[in-house]
Write a structure and sequence with these properties.
The chain has about 250 residues and is an alpha/beta fold. It folds into two domains: about 5-115 and about 170-235, Rossmann fold (3-Layer(aba) Sandwich), CATH 3.40.50; about 120-165, no CATH class. It is built from ten helices and six strands, in the order E-H-H-E-H-E-H-E-H-H-H-E-H-E-H-H. A six-stranded parallel beta sheet has the order 2-1-3-4-5-6. The longest helix has 19 residues, at about 145-165.
Length: about 250
């Protein structure tokens, strides 16, 4: 039996290849993990950063066409934090274009797309932005101790924050047909309290799962997260292409 493919999208500032490296090794017996690298990082470091979610999704479609057009093997999509937003919009774009649909969408550590993020962190000058990020404890201290790392990473992170904070949700012409699963960290409070509101964004099956940890629970509870992904993907079947799409009322 051929392996299920899992397209994985990174959180802000991250390289998909690096973030999901351990997943490739740990899931390799049953699932083929395919990190989707974003422009301006990893092996695509020399490419200009995208400036909007729409631009990034269009770029991902083009880079992923060989996988998306291959309907001989099923695939699913996973994204954490910013990657969750990108995964949602990518899934909608796939449906809009009539490409083979994923068996399911797993959004992790991100609030429903119709909920606007409040704040002005993305509007701060680069060094002020970096100071706030440093105090948050969500970025390894080594980034701030090595000037070359700082000069590489902080501008990417800042650009990603601008991209997410400036995102404007627009109701879709059709609701997703895809089964949708929401993963959340128990201590990621804002996302935790809004997690069930993801259900309005699909007419497929919806379930949410809560894990120990904060916003980066995918690292803190990695084994439990991977077990749940294996469980979900083992039960998912390719979508029946004859199912009609439901228009938004």
């Amino acid at each position: 039996m051929e392996k299920m493919r899992l397209l994985c999208l990174p959180y802000a500032g991250g390289s998909a290849a690096s973030i999901y490296l351990s997943w490739k090794r740990k899931l390799k017996e049953k699932i083929e993990v395919l990190p989707l690298e974003l422009a301006g990082r990893g092996k695509r470091l020399r490419e200009p950063l995208c400036t909007s979610v729409n631009e990034m999704v269009d770029d991902l479609i083009q880079k992923s066409l060989p996988v998306l057009q291959d309907d001989s093997r099923p695939y699913a999509i996973f994204g954490h934090s910013m990657g969750g937003l990108l995964a949602y919009e990518l899934c909608n774009k796939i449906q809009e274009l009539g490409l083979p649909a994923p068996t399911c969408l797993i959004v992790s550590g991100f609030h429903p797309p119709d909920k606007k993020i409040e704040g002005n962190l993305h509007q701060l000058p680069l060094d002020e932005f970096a100071e706030v990020i440093k105090k948050s404890g969500n970025v390894p201290p080594s980034i701030f101790e090595d000037r070359d790392l700082y000069n590489l990473f902080i501008p990417i992170l800042h650009a990603d924050y601008k991209l997410v904070f400036s995102y404007q949700y627009k109701p879709k012409a059709t609701v997703l047909n895809t089964d949708l699963y929401a993963f959340t960290g128990k201590e990621d409070y804002k996302v935790y309290h809004q997690r069930k509101e993801w259900m309005i964004h699909t007419i497929g099956k919806f379930q949410d799962f809560v894990f120990e940890g904060g916003h980066f629970f995918i690292r803190q509870s990695e084994e439990q997260v991977l077990e749940k992904i294996e469980e979900i993907l083992s039960t998912e079947k390719p979508m029946d292409k004859s199912l009609p799409l439901e228009k938004v009322r």
